[in-house]
């Protein structure tokens, strides 16, 4: 990827590729859900403040670092950081900028493959006539690799491998391939998004039914547009807003550095970064908020949305909602919705391939082909556990370590390195060199003081959660292999449940949960209690050890026998992630030795 | 939210318009499509 003669074809191509890198599935699925869960319209206030104080500064820092490193022939973060700050250790911090991408793409390509598969199923009319629970059930059987929905054995794996192969093939064409996909994918994504958003905004109460007589899309829009100001002072809301800015801009990953490393010294990065950043915000704030929530509220009502909003809605609910428009429109809506998600996904996953390819080309002279196919192979090996053990939580665990912790850690280190070690004055000179727009000087102050503090707060706030995850404190079944099975956290308003039913292979617990509903007149959410249940399924050799009527608390034993807990599968995943990190560290060390021999080493 | 959406749409259009209307820099620049001769 980093042959010295490689360049971007055009400035618009670069901006679309950068925006495509940032625009991902989260713009359409994560943002609206975060807004619903964190104060509706009020969420946008901390969100935009975090965009100004953390998002834009991080974009400036990553574009500047990337272009600076590119001048010395470095196109991935280990040696980009090394060219900025001399020191033996710092290049190993840059390992995050390759590791995160390979680890994230390994499971991200799996979601991308679902979108491909769902386009196919929309076209052949699989969802025609399905009820909402059948559509949700379809997703469950799709991700259960032992089942097939098309007759293709191991369908989920086949789609996953095809998806990775498409990514790899495009990457093997170098920057030109990436740029071409961005130039086709981004305009199509925006077009599909506008069509679906117009439908969402004009749906009104036409989707109300006997089951959901009060359903109205306007309620969904109003909820997102009306601030519940009491939540604005909650640190949880600010943390959610900061987290969302992080994920949406793809900062802390190393991809922005890599793309920017192909920009020449005299060419602009200030206006480019703002243009790409705001294009992502347009897709997220304008289009992202106008599709899932209004359409779901239009058919299922706002209260359903408040209780069920989540990432899974894209696959478990939307196909059912599209069916309400009749088979022909459902086909087009399905193709547009999953096509939009596919383009959002592929423009991001392609970006994730470039740091590895850049590193291997810079340090070991690998060709684009070799770089791309090796990337695909490593991602496949690393990703297969997320496919095979999806239901065992490996997918979520990868997302937590690679897609959350790693990003925050790297961004925190890089902002300190840029503003304090490399020096804000040198950094500012780099940012403004060749700039086509004048950046307010106040950003110099923000980048030096505010952004590190904000990031430090996000990082420190995540530490207890990181500790709990490392020690498996998030579950009561902490051993890989055990002879007892314990009840997990009950949820709802109480930590007590009652055994409702016991069969040979099932224990049903009932407990008091809360349902959220929105009172329009008072513009606030109220919670009402209702009787909910948890079902534990057991296999042969596992015997329930509780009786009907028994009171159960989290951590109480409910079955005995031979158990292989989720922790076992998560540990396999974690071992693979650690091995990948170690492997890249070794490569960086080998590159350092090679540079020393060739007289190119900097420290 | 409407105000936020208006701001975002305005800023996105403004920056992209500025990108489109800023004349290219002298050669050699970062973009192969601006090259005088095919590479």
Structure write-up:
- The complex is a heterodimer of chains A (603) and B (39).
- Chain A folds into two domains: 482 residues, Hydantoin permease; 84 residues, no CATH class.
- Chain A has 22 helices and seven strands.
- In chain A, the strands form two sheets. In chain A, strands 4-3-2-6 form a four-stranded antiparallel sheet. Chain A has a three-stranded antiparallel sheet with strand order 1-7-5.
- In chain A, a hairpin with a 3-residue loop joins strand 2 and strand 3.
- In chain A, helix 1 packs across helix 9 and helix 1 packs across helix 18.
- The termini of chain B are far apart.
> How many helices of chain B does DSSP assign?
1
The total count of strands of chain B amounts to 0
The backbone outline of chain B, from C-alpha atoms, is rod-shaped
Strand ordering within the main sheet of chain A: 4-3-2-6
The counted number of beta strands of chain A is 7
Overall body shape of chain A: globular
Helix content estimate of chain A:
55-70%
Structural classification of chain A: alpha+beta
The biggest beta sheet of chain B is recorded as: none
Beta-strand percent range of chain A: 5-15%
Measured by residues with Cβ under 8 Å of the partner chain's Cβ, the largest interface is: A-B, 37 and 25 residues
CA distance, first residue to last residue of chain A:
25 Å
Low-pLDDT runs of chain B: none
Strand content of chain B: under 5%
The termini of chain B sit apart by: 48 Å
Based on secondary structure, the structural category of chain B is mainly alpha
Continuous helix count of chain A? 22
**What is the alpha-carbon Rg of chain A in Å?**
25 Å
Q: What is the correct CATH architecture of the largest domain in chain A?
A: Orthogonal Bundle
Task: Give the oligomeric state of the chains in this entry, treating copies of one chain as homo and distinct chains as hetero.
Answer: heterodimer
Mean pLDDT across all amino acids of chain A: 93
């Amino acid at each position: 990827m980093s042959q010295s003669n490689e360049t971007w074809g055009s400035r618009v191509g670069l901006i679309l590729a950068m925006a495509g890198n940032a625009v991902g599935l989260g713009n359409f699925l994560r943002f609206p859900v975060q807004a619903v869960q964190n104060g509706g319209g009020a969420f946008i206030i901390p969100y935009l403040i975090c965009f100004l104080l953390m998002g834009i500064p991080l974009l400036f820092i990553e574009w500047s670092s990337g272009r600076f490193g590119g001048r010395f022939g470095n196109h991935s973060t280990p040696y980009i950081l090394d060219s900025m700050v001399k020191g033996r250790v710092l290049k190993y911090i840059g390992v995050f900028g390759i590791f995160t991408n390979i680890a994230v793409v390994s499971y991200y390509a799996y979601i991308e493959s679902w979108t491909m598969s769902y386009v196919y199923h929309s076209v052949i009319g699989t969802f025609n006539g399905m009820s909402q629970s059948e559509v949700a059930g379809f997703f469950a059987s799709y991700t259960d690799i032992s089942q097939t929905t098309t007759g293709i054995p191991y369908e989920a794996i086949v789609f996953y491998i095809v998806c990775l192969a498409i990514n790899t093939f495009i990457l093997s064409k170098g920057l030109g391939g990436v740029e071409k996909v961005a130039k086709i994918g981004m305009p199509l994504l925006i077009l599909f998004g506008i069509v679906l958003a117009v439908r969402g905004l004009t749906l009104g109460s036409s989707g109300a039914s006997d089951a959901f007589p009060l359903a109205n899309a306007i309620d969904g829009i109003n909820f997102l547009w009306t601030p519940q100001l009491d939540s604005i002072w909650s640190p949880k809301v600010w943390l959610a807003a900061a987290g969302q800015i992080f994920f949406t801009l793809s900062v802390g990953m190393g991809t922005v550095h890599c793309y920017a490393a192909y920009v020449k010294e005299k060419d602009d990065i200030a206006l480019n970064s703002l243009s790409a950043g705001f294009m992502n915000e347009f897709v997220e704030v304008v289009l992202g908020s106008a599709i899932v929530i209004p359409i779901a509220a239009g058919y299922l009502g706002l209260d359903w949305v408040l209780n069920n909003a989540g990432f899974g809605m894209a696959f478990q609910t939307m196909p059912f909602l599209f069916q309400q428009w009749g088979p022909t429109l459902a086909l087009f809506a399905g193709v547009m919705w999953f096509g939009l998600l596919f383009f959002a996904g592929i423009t991001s996953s392609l970006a994730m391939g470039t740091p590895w390819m850049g590193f291997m080309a810079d340090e070991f002279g690998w060709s684009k082909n070799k770089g791309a196919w090796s990337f695909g192979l490593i991602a496949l090996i690393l990703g297969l556990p997320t496919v095979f053990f999806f239901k065992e939580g490996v997918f979520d665990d990868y997302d937590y370590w690679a897609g959350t912790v790693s990003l925050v850690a790297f961004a925190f280190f890089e902002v300190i390195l840029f503003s304090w070690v490399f020096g804000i004055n040198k950094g500012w000179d780099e940012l403004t060199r060749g700039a086509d727009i004048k950046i307010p000087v106040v950003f110099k102050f923000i980048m030096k003081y505010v952004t590190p503090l904000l990031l430090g707060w996000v990082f420190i706030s995540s530490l207890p959660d990181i500790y709990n995850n490392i020690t498996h404190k998030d579950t009561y079944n902490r051993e890989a292999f055990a002879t007892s099975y314990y009840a997990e956290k009950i949820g709802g308003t109480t930590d007590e449940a009652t055994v409702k039913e016991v069969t040979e292979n099932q224990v049903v617990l009932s407990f008091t949960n809360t349902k959220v509903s929105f009172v329009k007149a008072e513009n606030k959410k109220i919670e009402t209690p209702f009787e909910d249940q948890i079902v534990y399924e057991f296999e042969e050799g596992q015997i329930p050890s509780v009786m009907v009527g028994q009171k159960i608390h989290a951590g109480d034993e409910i079955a005995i026998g031979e158990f292989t807990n989720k922790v076992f599968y998560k540990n396999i995943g974690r071992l693979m992630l650690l091995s990948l990190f170690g492997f890249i560290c070794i490569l960086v060390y080998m590159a350092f030795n090679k540079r020393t021999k060739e007289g190119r080493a900097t420290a | 939210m409407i105000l936020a959406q208006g701001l975002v749409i305005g800023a996105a259009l403004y920056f992209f318009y500025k990108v489109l209307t800023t004349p290219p820099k002298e050669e050699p620049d970062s973009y192969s499509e601006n090259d005088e001769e095919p590479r």
